[in-house]
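Milestone M4 deliverable, item 7.
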Amino acid sequence: MKELDIPAMEELQTLVKAREVRLILGDQLNFGHDWFTSNPDPEITFVLMEVRSETDYARHHIQKVVSFFAAMRLFAMDLHQQGHRVLYLTLDDPRNLHSIPDNLEWICSEAAATQSAWQQPDEYRMDEILAKWSAICDRRGWDWSISDSQHFFTQREELATFFKGKKTYRLETFYRYMRKKHNILMTSAMEPECGEWNFDASNRQKLPKNHTLPPPKLFQRNVSTLVALLESSGVETIGRIRADAFPWPLTRVEGLEMLQHFAEELLPFFGDFQDAMTTECWTVYHSRLSFLMNVKLISPYEVVQTVEQAWRDDPERVHISQAEGFIRQILGWREYMRGVY
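Output delivered:
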């Protein structure tokens, strides 16, 4: 396990003049986005913020809130170290108005910015919040633009377009379309590998008696300062947390380590036991990649490609049913539910 801490953010709290202010939401920590692949522009300031409007719209599990804030801070520090200009508003920053539009307005005003940009959010709720921000930009005479998040396999309206005019909205139909479109687990003749589209019938086994499960891969990080911040700020959460040994991966490097661990150690048994539960181990053979993908530290493309390649490299170790059972969750279910939502 690695003993790691969460950085203090004092060096990212100075606002300088900028031509453009770009908002990065807590679930948009995508180093592969076009925003970050060119040389840093000193006239662009990237803004991340911890706001009560996000912690308080529902009562969240404390590990979820801590994961978001910790990942945001680590991502912001990485951007800063790469040479990008970053402003980070902590929960207790006295300038923080705890509203994304209100914070952006004073930031743009003080930075003398004339342009603002943001990526498409993944929540309807956030769509409405950013619509208020675009209205403020219009009122203040500031230009604004929206970019794709460059994360999902599908575009926002792709599912609706696919099912337009159809009487049923079956996941399996959409899943097969995605397999063909992206050439995943397909033969050169564009037929499903091993002659089957779906091995779900093989993915419902119980754990054998006396089966030895692998220990979970953990990352030991001290998040006590974040827990204390939430408590002193009065943020109400549910659940428990071990603040001195937080086990979840929170950076891209750790995410790739977790992905590799899954492919090498867990994938050979994932499909068989993906629905199995036991009191002996809380992780069983699950990947624990959801948070990493949901905040975009790793992409569904590289996850699916890693799993497919593990099967192609050694089909005796990783049976097609294991790989397909996992890929179906990412390429099928995750993209389908995104479109439904």
